[in-house]
Amino acid sequence: MPSPMLLVHGEHLTECTFRLRNTNASITKQSVSGNGHWAFLDITMGSAAPGTFLIEAKNADGVATSRTPLERRRPVSDQPRGFSSTDVMYLIMTDRFADGDPSNNRQPGNAHALEIPNAWHGGDLAGSSNT
């Protein structure tokens, strides 16, 4: 797993130094947006245990802290899975020459399907499953 990045929002963050307290996790890199409203903190988890830790932001005007939860990682069986062919059926198309159910070739109230240029002529899903 890649190391997490924590996004901190506030004001006047440009001159801040950040520190984590009550955890074995540590900040390896910090950068602040030009307007001073966003701080990006790269964190190394090390042997940090689940629980609550404090993020401390300090500058010449003072210190601010925020409590942040660190939750236990979900078991592999509960992790999100990627998108695969089991998630979707794409472009199901009948084989127009595999006519598995000739009874549906006539449309109710209309003449024989071959007499109607835009009508369904032949193949159906029953024909596709029989091939």
Describe the structure.
- There is one protein chain.
- The protein is mostly beta strands.
- It contains one helix and six strands, in the order E-E-E-E-E-E-H.
- The protein has one helix at residues 125-130; strands spanning 5-9, 17-21, 26-32, 38-44, 51-59, 62-70.
- The strands form two sheets. A three-stranded antiparallel sheet has the order 1-4-3, with no helix packed on it. A three-stranded antiparallel sheet has the order 2-5-6, with no helix packed on it.
- Strand 5 (51-59) and strand 6 (62-70) form a beta hairpin.
- The longest helix has 6 residues, at 125-130.
- The protein is elongated and about 85 Å long.
- The mean pLDDT is 80.
Write the layout of secondary structure elements.
Elements: E1 5-9, E2 17-21, E3 26-32, E4 38-44, E5 51-59, E6 62-70, H1 125-130
Antiparallel strand pairs: 1-4, 2-5, 3-4, 5-6
Summarize this, please?
With 131 residues, the chain is mainly beta. It has one helix at 125-130, and strands spanning 5-9, 17-21, 26-32, 38-44, 51-59, 62-70. The protein contains one helix and six strands.
